[in-house]
Predict the 3D structure of the following.
Amino acid sequence: MTTPHTSVTGNLRVPAPFNESPRDFAPGSLEATRVLKEIDRVRGQVRELPHVIDGERLPLAARTNVVAPHDHGHVLGHFSPAGEREVTAAIEAALRARPTWSRTPWWDRTAIFLRAADLVTGKYRDELLATTMLGQSKTFHQAEIDINELADFFRYNASFAAQIYDTQPQSVPGAWNQMDHRPLEGFVLAITPFNFTAIAGNLPSTPALMGNVVVWKPSEKSALSSEVVMRVFEEAGLPPGVINLVHGSGADVTAVAQQSPHLAGITFTGSTAVFRQLWKSTAANIDRYRSYPRLVGETGGKNAVIAHASADPEALVTALVRGAFEYQGQKCSAASRTYIPRSLWASVEAPLVETTANLRVGDVTQHETFVGAVIDGASVRRLEQAIERGKALDSHQLLVGGRTRSEEGWFVDPTIFQTTDPHAITMSEEFFGPLLSVYVYEDDEWDRTLRLVDQTSDYALCCSVFAGDRRAISQALDVLRDAGGMTYVNDKPTGASIGQQSFGGSRGSGTNDKTGSPLALQRWITGRFIKETFSPAHDWTYPYMGQRG
Ligand SMILES: NC(=O)c1ccc[n+]([C@@H]2O[C@H](COP(=O)([O-])OP(=O)(O)OC[C@H]3O[C@@H](n4cnc5c(N)ncnc54)[C@H](O)[C@@H]3O)[C@@H](O)[C@H]2O)c1
Ligand SMILES: N[C@@H](CCC=O)C(=O)O
């Protein structure tokens, strides 16, 4: 890296951020035709997905297959799991890049990520859509909102960074107080989940935007799209070594990273069990570190939709179908338990069951498909077990779905149970798939049911309240205050937009650092306060000391 220099004088303003609008992908439309062509191109290749360390692509050693979940016989690429040598090389590359990158003016860092946003919505858009659809089994619409969100992250984070740097303390005559928003001392480990290409790109880029250097370990199950994201960073001008990509097992990469005294933070999105493990292993190594590593984790959810008798039944059915079954229920925000009063259930049950039964499950490149495949065979087995447990319980009645198929792709039909046991595992555990449980309560038990929603699960990510009655809404907002970092009124619990609904949950759902807001960036800086005095004192005595006797 060359030494950074300041080429601009002025209090620069970042362009106003905006949300990308999703396109329709109507059959035969220009956007659909282009993406289908790109899908054909990507399907026709077996891509090498190398580690990228200090800007160098390492040749593959052992090969792990990357397949399309809806057509798992089809190999799309290979990666080679990182061992101690590669992770150590990635850490060393990051630490070499640090002196220059951490001194690079913030507007130069910001310009790189603004350029990345335009590459995401321009040159790389079709390739990102195609690799996300094929590698993660997303429909046109689900892939489109994911890729748009990646660009939104880059643009909004640029603007949040500018706001943070603009935050300076008050000064009084004779002195100048300054806040130096320093990056952390060391490197940040970013561990990302399979289900959003946007999250995979956001987690390593947020610390990098704030001047940090990063080792990025994407999910093995989204290696295909992660490789494209890495190329976007590079083409946008990110210097070698600032973000180093290593594929493979999270446990193996973490074990090496946690040996380094320079581990300054971990940014994780994934399951609650893994984050708890990361917290414990970091604590066990605490004496090694130069500073206290920052731990940021956004994890699982068991998101409730509670309806009041005054709710609009059609809006409720739509929210349940989209909230529970879009992207096969593999969103941390997915609706997975719902509480419906008996009077409303009479008009909700039939349309909910009928709509769910008619959702098309299959190949995501077909326009009619609403539900693609779940991510792997282990997910099918986990969901199968949950469905079998539900079927075996007297308290549960299977209303629709319940079938799985694994021959060609890993498919699980959208499934709804009705239960009379509000504490059953289907009402409390995350299964991360197209599985919804309904508990029908008596209309006069609204109060008690709100408390059930609050107390049934260890998670507190999203909840939705459906009601027409304003008092019912206020009461729900009060009782459910700690039950979710995200509360939606008359809307589904999924689909937060960057810059509008900053995302995160508390309790078992994470550290609630609110991605898509300045708070998320704040975790990757450590302030240095500078006070400069213009007329230093020359007399050490207090004023009254001269007035003796
Ligand atoms: N709250 C949020 O914002 C949010 C967003 C997306 C996903 N999620 C959650 O993520 C989960 C699904 O994603 P997933 O299946 O990719 O999660 P996961 O926990 O299995 O994997 C996430 C990442 O952690 C790595 N990993 C796995 N075991 C590890 C270990 N022992 N040590 C270190 N790293 C390890 C994986 O390789 C992957 O890169 C769900 O629980 C979902 O709710 C949460
Ligand atoms: N931010 C996404 C969820 C991310 C987790 O999977 C949403 O709001 O639906």
User: Anything to note?
Assistant: The first strand starts at residue 47 and ends at 49. DSSP finds 16 helices and 23 strands in the chain.
